[in-house]
Input
Amino acid sequence: MALTLGIETSCDETSVALVENGRRVLANVIHSQVDLHREFGGVVPELAARDHLERLPNLLDLAFEQAGAGPDDVGLIAVTRGPGLAGCLLVGVGVAEGLGAAWSRPVSGVNHLWGHIYAAMLTRPELEPPLLGLVVSGAHSDLVRMPEHGRFEVIGRTRDDAAGEAFDKAARMLGLGYPGGPALDRLARSGNPNRRRLPRPSLAGLEYSFSGLKTALLYRLRDLGRDVTDQDRADLAAAFEQSVVESLLEKLDQCLPTRGEVARRAGGGIQEVVICGGVAANTLLRRRAAEVVSGRARLTMPPPELCTDNAAMIAAAAQLASPPRGEVARSAGGGSHSPAAQLASPPRGEVARSAGGGSHSPIQVDPSLGWD
Ligand code: KG4
Ligand code: ZN
Output
């Protein structure tokens, strides 16, 4: 049994997973740092990094126990190398490299964004690219084409705030504290989105923008002042949620064939749609996305625990997107994988793989890593 051990520490979830063939989750243990950061109203990077380091040994034990496996069963170690908080990423990469050296196993540095897409392969193991992805998280609202494994082309993104960031800020304005997205989702369930309507952002092309909507909410709350009731808050949460969700889906809609085209087999192109990332856990987005995509393409939305940050998706990405087992770090210029060569020309994307038990550290942490 050759399993991939995944490690995710990019932000405020510490997670360890064991995944078979990049498609089957044997264990996916997740520790959320919500309680640690709540009193500060957001993630405190230094506290987050230290907590990752303290939790990882125990989570590793737990993952092996749940999977009924041991280190001998591990063929590859996968760890998030970016994007994320620098100190947090360093903890995960340091631990992964330590284990790689101790067990003589290769270590693969994975792009967190790719991981979110690969959560869909854990949800529907037969799913293959090409696909269209909508990745909505705390820092991203990206529409991406994935023509094949390990290749992504961004066709739409946000001009300002990401959808998750917008939810978090709106939640704070509504007095919901951190973490905002899930709290706003809950409050919106008891609200009426039509009672206190908010504008729906709509830019030309495939660009998103949520900062104007955020300001509209701020003014609405200011106008209500002290008279604001709990029902007002719930109505505004529902209106805000509806504006974000419909805006996200409007651009997705533009990329899909119409139902008529599908019936005439004239749509071509996109047959598979993946919506993923933390915001894909949102109740309204899940319901509306199913309606918008129905009859036009096949929709895969991972279950909520695979939408928010987790290590199983990192293991899946390492196994399915990377070069064949044994191939060493894909650095440009004749395959040299010395640290100096890697700094001069870092490997494209995610797959920076150490030979296993090597004496140097080829995984480069990149807090602002993009799609490639
Ligand atoms: O993917 P993720 O766990 O971490 C990042 O990579 O950023 O996404 C976190 C984001 C946060 O902004 C959080 O508020 C949002 O996802 N989120 C939600 C929900 N659950 C998480 N937003 C709206 N509704 C939810 N149910
Ligand atoms: Zn994420």
Q: What stands out?
A: The chain has two domains: 3-120+309-353, 128-304.
